[in-house]
Structures are given as structure tokens and as C-alpha cells.
């Protein structure tokens, strides 16, 4: 692989960084998360319509830019640096690739151009705490996470007038309270022949009730979705490989998340270094003390190692190579958690306050572990999938 960025990739990073530094400071982030949607609609319009971020990794045939997932990941690295709340992850990294992989020609032509233009946001609704399992990151995504058996999860039944009807509830759906389109994972076929499929539910459908939920990380807006005999459309054909598509999307989404976490970790480290250079104690800057230097050096090494892993995972996902997104995500989240914890500690008393932004980075790391991890399970499943410890003797 060629590790150098292209001129276009450098331009994406530069343009986004300049825009987000102006439009997405700590106070702007706090104001945005308090809105009903959980993000700044004006900023999203700029990101979507002027910069084309939702369609960055979509083919030009569907109104996209035609870039790779690596380009989308680099864009998310910049949004991660400032913890920009937006529907970008849910729409461009989770929902759009599923529509592209599973949708019929008519569904792709009708939905993807609207997503690419920023006119339509989308969210993936997976029952229970099954999102990382459904995406093939922490376990076998055989389909039981969708509510196998006679009850639980979301059930889909053929409607009398044709189409499908969905019944059930899904919590902790990224942007589920505000997205214009929901991709809902549901079980069909009853108990004996249960099968997981993805269904499309449009905003305003009769029987659909949505509400925003309180979340640990306010910059990741989440909602509860209740479905009471809601009319839905099957995504793709009856024989579509839903589980395979979810696993593939899970790997690319994990790579994007890993790069985003690296951006956040890098920013937390950058702010901490700036602080210890100007904060004085005993007549000298605290950054001159050897103990502080060692702690920040350790963070720097972690961030750079995580960046290398995340960039490789993003490149591999775009090139159709080995699936290493889960491992890169584990390393990225660990680096972010460490950088945020050290930021809180080295900022002293102010680092523990609600008003300081250090706590936002710590919550991002913890929140992403709850949504997509945790780190030890990401690594354990990757090790099992690679058969890393097969035949190894365990000392007692």
C-alpha cells in the first residue's frame, strides 16, 4: 500500500479542519447537542451540500463523489477532533453502505442520491444491545441478536394488503429519533424458520413512535424507536445475504470509527500539551517536569500506534483486503480513553469540571465502547476469528 495521502485527501482534511474550527468549538458543540435533533442543522447542511460528505464514499452513479472509505474516514477524523455532533456516522458509514449492498436498483436510485445530497438522513436500528454483534465485531452475527424466538426484538409479518408490518422496540439507535429513514433489523418466519432481514421505515409512518434518549455521550444523539404494526418495505430481495452485508459494513464502519477516535485522541493530547506548557507550578511550567513529559510521551506513542492501525484498516476496507476494522477500533478507543484520562488529570482541578471540554472526550471514548465494544471483546473476537490461540497450552 502507498501510505502517502493524495492531494485530494490533503484538501479534504485542510478544508474540513478550517471549517470545523470556526463552526464547532466547545460552546457550539454544547449548544448543538441541546437541540431536538442533537446536532446543528446549519452545519450539517454545509457539510452535506457544500462539501458532499454524506456522498463521499458513494458511487457517482447515485450522486456521490466516488471516493473510497479511506476518504470518508479522513473526514471523520476531522469531525472527531472537535467531537462534531452530526448524522454523518449513522447515515454515511452504517445506513448508506447497507442500501448500496442490499438494495434493489429502484431502492438505490430512489434513496442514495437523496442521502448523497444531504436531503435524507438514515439510521440503523438493531434490537437490544446487538449492534456490535450484528456488525460482526464482537461475536457471530448469526441473527439471534435480532430477537430470535417467539418474542423480543422486532418481529416482521406479511401485511394483509401486501408488504410487511413490524412490531417491537429498539433502544439506543444512533440518530434514531431524527433520521428521515430507518433501516430496521427484524426477524421473519416465526419461531421455527426465523430469519433476519432489514426493512425500510420512513419518517411519519403510522404506528412509529420515536423519542430521544439521554446518553452518556451527548455528541452521539440516540433515540428509542417503537414500532406498532408499522408498514415497512423489505430492503433488497428475499434471498439477499443480510448477515454478510452487515459484517462487511461493520468492518468499514469500525475502520471509520477508529480513525475518528484517533482524531479525538490527537486533539485531547494537543490541548493537554498546550496547557502544561503555560501552566506554572513552583515557578516553572509543569510541562518541564520529567514525570509529566513521560506521561505525555506514553500518550503520544499510543495515539501514533492507533493512527497507523486505523489508517491501515481504512485502506484495507476500501481495497477489499483483510477485515481488521475491529482491531483498529479497539486500539483507537484505548488511545482515546488514555488521552482523555491524562487530559483530565494533567489539567488539575479544572479538568474535573463540567465546564471543561476534557470530560467530553472521556465520554466519547466510554460511550463508543458501550455502543461498539467493549475493547476486550473486540480483541477477543478478532483473536478467535484468526484462530490465534488454537492449540495453545495454558499454564496453570
Summarize the structure.
It comes from Streptomyces olivochromogenes. The chain has 396 residues and is of the alpha+beta class.
How is this fold's topology laid out?
Elements: H1 7-23, H2 26-33, H3 41-50, H4 69-81, H5 88-102, H6 105-116, E1 122-125, H7 131-134, E2 154-158, E3 164-174, E4 181-188, E5 195-202, E6 208-213, E7 222-234, H8 242-278, E8 280-281, E9 284-285, H9 290-319, H10 325-346, H11 358-372, H12 375-385
Parallel strand pairs: 1-4
Antiparallel strand pairs: 2-3, 3-7, 4-5, 5-7, 6-7, 8-9
Would you give an account of this structure?
A hairpin with a 5-residue loop joins strand 2 (154-158) and strand 3. The protein is of the alpha+beta class. Helix 5 packs antiparallel against helix 8 (242-278) and helix 8 runs antiparallel to helix 11. The chain has three domains: 7-89 and 102-119, Acyl-CoA dehydrogenase/oxidase, N-terminal domain (Butyryl-Coa Dehydrogenase, subunit A, domain 1, Orthogonal Bundle); 123-242, Butyryl-CoA Dehydrogenase, subunit A, domain 2, CATH 2.40.110; 243-385, Up-down Bundle (Butyryl-CoA Dehydrogenase, subunit A, domain 3), CATH 1.20.140. Helix content is 49%, strand content 15%. The protein contains twelve helices and nine strands. The longest helix is centred in the middle third of the chain and has 37 residues, at 242-278. The model has no long low-confidence stretch (mean pLDDT 91). Strands 1, 2, 3, 4, 5, 6 and 7 form a seven-stranded mixed β-sheet that branches. Strands 8-9 form a two-stranded antiparallel sheet. It has helices spanning 7-23, 26-33, 41-50, 69-81, 88-102, 105-116, 131-134, 242-278, 290-319, 325-346, 358-372, 375-385, and strands at residues 122-125, 154-158, 164-174, 181-188, 195-202, 208-213, 222-234, 280-281, 284-285.
Amino acid at each position: 500500500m502507498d501510505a502517502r495521502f493524495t492531494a485530494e485527501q490533503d484538501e479534504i482534511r485542510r478544508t474540513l479542519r478550517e471549517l470545523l474550527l470556526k463552526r464547532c468549538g466547545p460552546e457550539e458543540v454544547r449548544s448543538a447537542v441541546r437541540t431536538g435533533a442533537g446536532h446543528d442543522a446549519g452545519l450539517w447542511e454545509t457539510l452535506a451540500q457544500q462539501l458532499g460528505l454524506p456522498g463521499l464514499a458513494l458511487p457517482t452513479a447515485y450522486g456521490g463523489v466516488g471516493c473510497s472509505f479511506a476518504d470518508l474516514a479522513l473526514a471523520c477524523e476531522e469531525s472527531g477532533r472537535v467531537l462534531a455532533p452530526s448524522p454523518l456516522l449513522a447515515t454515511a458509514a452504517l445506513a448508506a453502505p447497507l442500501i448500496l449492498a442490499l438494495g434493489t436498483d429502484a431502492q438505490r436510485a430512489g434513496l442514495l442520491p437523496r442521502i448523497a445530497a444531504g436531503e435524507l438522513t438514515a439510521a440503523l436500528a438493531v434490537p437490544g444491545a446487538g449492534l456490535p454483534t450484528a456488525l460482526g465485531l464482537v461475536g457471530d452475527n448469526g441473527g439471534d441478536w435480532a430477537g430470535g424466538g417467539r418474542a423480543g426484538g422486532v418481529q416482521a409479518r406479511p401485511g394483509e394488503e401486501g408488504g410487511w408490518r413490524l412490531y417491537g422496540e429498539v433502544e439506543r439507535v444512533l440518530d434514531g429519533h431524527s433520521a428521515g429513514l430507518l433501516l430496521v433489523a427484524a426477524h421473519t418466519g416465526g419461531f421455527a424458520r426465523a430469519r433476519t432481514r432489514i426493512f425500510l421505515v420512513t419518517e411519519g409512518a403510522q404506528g412509529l413512535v420515536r423519542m430521544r434518549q439521554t446518553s452518556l455521550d451527548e455528541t452521539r444523539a440516540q433515540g428509542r424507536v417503537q414500532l406498532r404494526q408499522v408498514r415497512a418495505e423489505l430492503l433488497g430481495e428475499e434471498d439477499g445475504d443480510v448477515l454478510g452485508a452487515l459484517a462487511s459494513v461493520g468492518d468499514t464502519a469500525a475502520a471509520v470509527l477508529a480513525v475518528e477516535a484517533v482524531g479525538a485522541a490527537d486533539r485531547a493530547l494537543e490541548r493537554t500539551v498546550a496547557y502544561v506548557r503555560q501552566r506554572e507550578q513552583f515557578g516553572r511550567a509543569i510541562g518541564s517536569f520529567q514525570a509529566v513529559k513521560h506521561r505525555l510521551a506514553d500518550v503520544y506513542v499510543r495515539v501514533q500506534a492507533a493512527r497507523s492501525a486505523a489508517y491501515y484498516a481504512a485502506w484495507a476496507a476500501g481495497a477489499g483486503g483483510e477485515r481488521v476494522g475491529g482491531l483498529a477500533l479497539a486500539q483507537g478507543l484505548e488511545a482515546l480513553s488514555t488521552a482523555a484520562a491524562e487530559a483530565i488529570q494533567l489539567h488539575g482541578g479544572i479538568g474535573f469540571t463540567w465546564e471543561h471540554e476534557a470530560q467530553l472526550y472521556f465520554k466519547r471514548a466510554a460511550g463508543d465502547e458501550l455502543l461498539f465494544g467493549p475493547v476486550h471483546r473486540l480483541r477477543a473476537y478478532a483473536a478467535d476469528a484468526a484462530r490465534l490461540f488454537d492449540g495453545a497450552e495454558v499454564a496453570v
